[in-house]
Structure formats: C-alpha cells, structure tokens
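Continuing from the previous page...

OK, I double-checked the sequence for Alpha-1,4-N-acetylglucosaminyltransferase against my notes and this is the correct one:
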Amino acid sequence: MLKEAQFSLLVILLLACGFLYQLTLKSSCFFFCLPPFRSQQGPEALLSHRHSIVFIETSERMEPPPMVSCAVESAAKTYPEQPVAFFMKGLNSSSHLPSTSTYPAFSLLSAIDNVFFIPLDMKRLFEDTPLFSWYTQINSSVEKNWLHVSSDASRLAIIWKYGGIYMDTDVISIRPIPEENFLAAQASQYSSNGVFGFRPRHPFLWGCMENFVEHYNSDTWGHQGPDLMTRMLKVWCKLRDFQELSDLKCLNMSFLHPQRFYPISYPEWRRYYEVWDRDPSFNDSYALHLWNYMNQEGRAVVRGSNTLVENLYRKHCPRTYRDLIQGPEGPVTGELGLGNK
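Thanks. Re-ran it with the corrected sequence; updated structure tokens here:
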C-alpha cells in the first residue's frame, strides 16, 4: 500500500514538473529571458538561412522607445517570413530582465515570432573586415559622434557578413522591398545609409569599409554614413538625375528613387507630426524615414491627435500603438497586450 502511494505521488510530481516546465516556456521562466536565446541561435545560424531585416542599437539602452518599437514591429509585420534581427550593445549572453512591466516595449517585441534580439559585439563583428584595425585602435571615449559612427560601421559589417536589409530605427515599413542589392536615394545623386540591402560579401560594402577607414573623420556628422555611401556610389556608377519615378540601375545594384523611402524630405520632417486634410497613400514608397535625428524638439506620437504619424502607427505597428502610445492626459491604462500578430 505504501509503495502504491509513493508511486502515485511520484507520478503526480512528474506531471507537476512537466506542467511547470511548459508554463515557464510560455511565461519566460517567470522572469524575462532574452528572445535570441530561446532558440540558442547566434547571428550566423539565424541570419544565414533567409533574407533578414537588421536594426542596430549602439547605446547601452535596453528599453526601445515607441518609435524604435514601431520600426521593428512594422518590419516584422511587413516581412512575416523573414527574421528581424535587432542587434543591441546593451545585451550580453547572460542578460535577463527582471520583469515585463519594467521593459514593456522589449517585452512587446519579444512576443513577435520573427523578432530576435542579438548582442552587438563590435570587436567580434569587425573581425576579418577592414574595420578591425580601426576599431582596435580607436579611443571611443573621445569620439564626438561615437554612437552614430559605430552604428555606421556596424551596419556595413553586418550586411557584408550576413546579407539582408539594414534599416534605421526610425523607419516604418509599409510594403516589402522587391530589390536585393540596393541603396536608397535621399535626394537626387545623394545616397542615404538609413536603408540599404545587399547579398552577403558584396564587394560594394567591402569598398565602403575600406573607404571608412582610409577617410575616417568622426568630427563631421554623416561623413562615415550617407556621405560615405555617396562617395562610393560615385566611384561605382555614373550618377544622373532621376527621371520621374524610375529607379537607377548600376552594374548589379539599384539606386532607388527618393520617393521609395523619403517622400517627405528632411526640411519638411515636421509634416509627419501635423494633421493632414487627407493622409497620403505613399503608393510609391516601401518604407518611411521619419528623420528622428532632426526631432530636437522632442515631438511625440499622441493618441487621438489625428496626425499623420499617429495614423501610420495605428496602421503599421498596431501593437506599439495600442500598448505604448499615450494620450494627451498621460499613459494609456490597461495591461500590456501580447496577443498574436
């Protein structure tokens, strides 16, 4: 009788352990485990399978602001079958976050199946590239624009190594980009580096990394970024002005019309925060760059404002809009929603 009771207790204990194991998988171990390690995939394994979308955070910040959350969510929504990789400097392989309530945007994004957070280890990333000698000799503490410069370098190395599409964290995706090797025109004969895409090991990016080191000048903002892309593009291609809405072709890559990502130019960036009589369709665009660097006034997306940017959030990053965007009188009440896509 005693043995039967012991056996019954053992069965109950095993069932309880199995239940708790499944529960911890769903609730992230009762504390927040970082998404990239749920599958134990490093960047090589994750990004080598499919054409990926890449975002980068070069500060130590762990909680993405709403605009960053919208950029990542909109990419995941636009490219549901492709991994969206968010490289973050603040992560490391043993990082745990104490609670989902402390990091609501991080928690929101981690619940999206094709979003993966990856530690940004620059020294390892730059190995076997022209950037390695530069990085190991630079004193980042005295660099004037280090967050931007290190991001400029990291995006070149990541896309060169793994391929895919890089996007700034203030770019809202609205439809898939049909090109594989491309640069985005910010204006006629001037390239952005806020969005670009290439196959792995593309020689254009290797040339960009060499030029980055040879002509390094961190005092001038953009010298290692859009200015670099434009310098290299002029070496590779004979640039001319765009004709109507046609893209330009050069060798095995495309130079995409400003309407594809910059239908609202940087001098007019405030128009995103204005109410329009009728919101534009952006039918000729793949994504929208919101020029957050220009937003020194701290303009925010406000629930109920009916501004263009609010309507873009509502349509293209509905989770971020629902859970993170505040009304004019303060935070939106209610629990953080982590429902299905």
